[in-house]
Specification:
The protein has about 50 residues and is an alpha+beta fold. The chain has one domain. About 20% of the residues lie in helices and about 40% in strands. It is built from 1 helix and 2 strands, in the order E-E-H. A two-stranded antiparallel sheet has the order 1-2. It is globular and about 35 Å long. The model has no long low-confidence stretch (mean pLDDT about 85).
Amino acid sequence: MIEMKHLNINFGDQVIFNDAHFKTCPGQITGIIGKSGCGKTTFLKSLLYQ
């Protein structure tokens, strides 16, 4: 299982994520969707570096 709790990411004064939570289980297909610039790549990088 991948689980992330209380994720906070800021770029300068701009808040990207504030107390975000995420959980996914093995064998489950999970997609991350959203508008351009909403933080999808930032979120995925935070999963890799934590």
